[in-house]
Write a structure and sequence with these properties.
alpha+beta, BirA Bifunctional Protein, domain 2, SH3 type barrels, 7-stranded mixed β-sheet, 5-stranded antiparallel β-sheet, 14 strands, globular, binds biotin
Amino acid sequence: MELKEVDSTNTFLKNMLSNSKPVPEGTVIMAEDQFAGRGQRNNSWHAEPGKNLTFSILLRPSFLNAHQQFDLTRAVSMGVYDALYPLLRDSLKIKWPNDIYYQHNKLGGMLVENVLTGSQIKYSVVGIGLNVNQEHFPVSAGSATSIKNILHKNYELKNILAEICNHTEAWYLKLKAGKYTVLRDTYESRLYGLNQKRWFKSNGEIFEGIVSGVKEEGLLIVEQASGTRHYQLKEIEFLNK
Ligand code: BTN
């Protein structure tokens, strides 16, 4: 479904789910203008209307346990990566947990909202924001870039959306078939900063460390002078220094 304008495609899809009509798995809600987009860590997500992809996909991964939520994040990240790889090649990276990076710049991100029943995932609203044809970004957007800023061409949003949906479906089916090893290994091999020395901030402390991988359940593994530590999303931040 395509909307001209909406607060947030994630919120819209979640509202659809609380109405009585059943919403089929694979439903995609796309908005030309998302005026109150939501990002991770309670941030907002801004995108110039009509120039970027802002959409949400409904998945019903009832085959996954709550403790496997990160595998869904991995599968969707791999779908987006495969869709963009023919355009952007090896400079494309996934910055843990699920940001889409080109070199040191952020091209997009995702907000995965899982609803659980007991220990199973009942449904998952996967929201993806990808900067495609926008050329100028506010200073507050930090290192943001777009495909146009990299390749100096305009791209048809619908074509990129179709590629992302196809590749995400392929990885989702691998996940459903229990192919965890290939999923986890591929995700790790595409990680931004893997095995490189970087600066981090955690708990007000700034330190150097090396990302050596991601634990099964999604914790980031960072080797540092004091030893190996594991971090959750809100516990650590990469610094550009
Ligand atoms: C992030 O990097 O912080 C995640 C950004 C996710 C943005 C997308 S745009 C479509 C969907 N609807 C939202 O409100 N957010 C996600």
